[in-house]
TrEMBL record:
Species: Microbulbifer flavimaris
Domain annotation Tll0287-like: ranges: 49-182
Superkingdom field: Bacteria
The protein, known as: DUF3365 domain-containing protein
InterPro entries referenced in this protein's UniProt entry, alphabetically: Tll0287-like_dom
Amino acid sequence: MKFPLTITVLLLGVIGNAWADESGIAIGQARQASLALGKTLKQELVSAMKRGGPVEAISVCNLKAMPLTEQISTETGWQVARTSLKVRNPANSPDDWERHQLQQFQARLDAGESMASLEAATTEQRDGKSVQRFMKAIPVQGPCLVCHGTELAPAVAQKLDSLYPNDQARGYQLGELRGAFTLERVISGE
Ligand code: HEC
C-alpha cells in the first residue's frame, strides 16, 4: 500500500513546480495527500473486512492511518490527522478553527455545494511561528456504514462500546459529511 501513495506524493512535487507560488504548491500537496490517504484507508478497510470481518477491521481505521500519515509527513512536511463534529475517539476532537470549518462544510453542503469541493485553508500564528493549515471533507461511503452507520452488527457495536465508551460516530447515512482530514505545517518561525 506504500507504493501508490509515494508515487502520488512524488508526482505532486512535479506538478507543483509548475505552480506560481510556494503556498499554492503546499496546498496542492495537502489536497493530494488527503485524497491519497482517503483512498488508501478505504482500500485497507475493505480488504481488512474481507480478510477478518468488521470486528477485526476496527483497528484499521485507527492503526493503519498512522504509518500512512507518517509517510505523508516525511514526504511533504504536512502533519495529517482526522477530525469530526461527532468523534469516535475524543483525541480526534476539533479545535476552534476546525470546528468552525466543519460547520461551514455542513452549511455549504446543505446549500448545494459538492462534497469534493469542501476545503478550507488558513495561516495562523502559534507560539511565534507561522502555521499553514488545510482541511478537506471526508464523505460517508458504503463500507463506512459497517462501523459508522445506523445498524451495526451486534459484535461490532459491542467491540466499539468497549473501546470507545463515548462514541458519537454512529448513525451516519451514505453521502453525509463524516468529518475531515486536517493538515498543518510550520512555514516559518524563530
Ligand atoms: C471496521 C470499522 C470501521 C470502518 C469500516 C470505518 N471506520 Fe472510521 N473509525 C473506526 C474507528 C475504530 C475509529 C476511531 C479511530 C481512532 O481511535 O482514532 C474511526 C474513526 C474515524 C474518523 C476520525 C474521527 C473520529 O470519529 O474519531 C474518521 C474521519 C473516520 N473514521 C472515517 C471513516 C470513513 C470515511 C470510513 C469509510 C471509508 C470509515 N471511517 C470506516 C472504525 C471504522
